[in-house]
Design goal:
Length: 374
């Protein structure tokens, strides 16, 4: 019997649809070791599947649309024939791709020993009662967007009665608050927060026979002081991770107050939080980082808004259409995320900075937050 039951709300899966970051890899390892059982309600499974299907449909439609646009241009007969062939081949693989996408999530759940929870008549009736009367986790009656939460909460209620303690991981306020109020249930806003709790850290450490995380922290800090490896990683690759990301700020004169990062400078004021270094199993550690960076963003500004701006605040613009300019501005952002430190598990029992000099690998695992410095 597993020591822990875990249920993850849809929004967590949406943040990492490939499920390949450190927290998800740690969860996989715990599940395969039968320390944790992942429980997936029907509604969560279908939400994850349909979200991914829609995302892939959009990309496929964009690809076909791009070829259609190309075919409207002047092309040689040979190139036109090649473009048509590519379009036909792409159309032919759309359904197989979508079928593969739909099968991916349940296949993964079963591969790690997870439980797919079927929708029962009892769950459906109880969820609809919550919908009609605004019962927990809902806060008001007949709010249709909350119906999935009502179904998910029925699974949480049932799992809360089982022997293994239940951990619910949900960013959604309704599911989080309602779960946190239940006896025997612990709620977390992120999968990382669940993995980083001391009991789970001890389970992961035990899997690799590691009992000296403080010594590992000291060795990693000493190694960074001597080599500057993580700082160099950030200097050369952090900008690549930011390219194409959308940032939001009331100071951006776009209709939606958002812009897309299109170029970047070197990071400054890099901070590495070794006090919050956590182990995710299989020789992989997560090291939180924070830095500031100047970036260029592209956005669209209504022409009349542009002409009403103070001259010293006007961005560089080019014509986009009759109503909007495409604008570019430089802004400062603060970036937070996680560096993955990887080392051979054979070295973990007796580790020093000298011992890991040739074996420690660092890579950027995830960017968790990009905020505009006002």
């Amino acid at each position: 019997m597993p020591k822990y039951n875990v249920l993850i709300d849809t929004n967590i899966y949406r943040k990492c649809p490939a499920r390949n970051d450190l927290p998800f890899k740690a969860l996989e390892r715990l599940c395969k070791a039968e320390v944790v059982t992942l429980n997936v309600p029907y509604v969560v499974e279908r939400e994850v599947q349909t979200q991914q299907i829609e995302a892939y449909k959009k990309e496929l439609a964009g690809a076909v649309g791009g070829i259609d646009g190309l075919l409207k241009k002047v092309l040689s007969p040979a190139h036109r024939a090649q473009a048509l062939t590519i379009k036909h081949e792409l159309c032919a693989v759309q359904q197989p791709i979508l079928a593969e996408v739909e099968a991916d999530f349940p296949t993964w759940v079963e591969s790690i020993g997870g439980k797919r929870l079927l929708l029962t008549e009892h769950d459906a009736l109880a969820a609809m009662e919550a919908y009609f009367f605004g019962k927990s986790p809902l806060t008001q009656p007949k709010d249709r967007k909350d119906i999935p939460d009502a179904f998910i909460f029925q699974s949480i209620l049932q799992l809360a009665t089982q022997a293994a303690p239940l951990s619910v991981i949900a960013e959604d306020g309704k599911v989080f608050n309602a779960s946190e109020a239940l006896d025997g249930v612990k709620a977390y806003k992120s999968l990382g927060a669940f993995i980083e709790q001391p009991d789970i850290q001890n389970e992961i450490l035990e899997l690799d026979v590691v009992a000296n995380l403080p010594a590992l922290r000291a060795a990693f800090m000493d190694h960074e002081t001597k080599s500057g490896g993580v700082a160099s990683l950030m200097e050369h690759h952090a900008g690549e991770e930011l390219y194409g990301r959308t940032v939001h700020s009331g100071s951006i004169p776009d209709d939606n107050h958002e812009g897309t990062i299109t170029s970047y400078w070197n990071p400054t004021d890099l901070g590495l939080d070794y006090d919050k270094l956590h182990y995710f199993g299989n020789g992989e550690f997560g090291l939180p980082f924070k830095f500031d960076m100047t970036v260029s963003i592209t956005y669209y500004i209504f022409k009349s808004d542009f002409y009403s701006m103070d001259e010293d605040k006007m961005p560089s613009v080019s014509d986009h259409n009759d109503h909007y300019f495409e604008a570019e501005s430089e802004i400062d952002v603060r970036v937070e995320g996680l560096v993955k430190l990887t080392i051979d598990t054979d070295l973990l029992k007796d580790i020093t900075a000298e011992a890991i000099e040739d074996y420690l690998e660092a890579s950027i695992d995830s960017i968790n937050k990009v905020s505009v410095i006002e």
